[in-house]
Amino acid sequence: MFVDLRTYTMFPGRLNTFLDLYEREGLPIQKKHLGEPLGYFITETGTLNQVVHIWGYESAADRERRRQAMESDPDWIAYRRKSAEAGNVQHQTNKLLRSASFSPM
């Protein structure tokens, strides 16, 4: 399994605005192209105002194919523009993880 671990840090006070827009407009598009996320979380301790989401793929090539289709989708392009204009995200990190041979996933 190949895992895409994404962490978005919001400006203080902007977390719910981000989540509302994403759930209403972004998530349906991502599900269409990427399938269901493995998880979608909000930090409770440590660095606050963060959203962490995890997507699973069969391989790096599978991830590339699905994300390329999503990035070409006019609805996704419109959502990304609207999300950027809202100015919620302060910082983003992205980690691509490959399962160890003994991992249960």
TrEMBL record:
Membrane spanning stretches: none
InterPro entries assigned to the protein according to its UniProt record, in alphabetical order: Dimeric_a/b-barrel (IPR011008), NIPSNAP (IPR012577), NipSnap_domain (IPR051557)
Occurrences of domain NIPSNAP (ranges): 4-104
Family membership noted in the UniProt record: Belongs to the NipSnap family.
Protein's name according to its UniProt entry: NIPSNAP family protein
Source organism: Vreelandella nanhaiensis
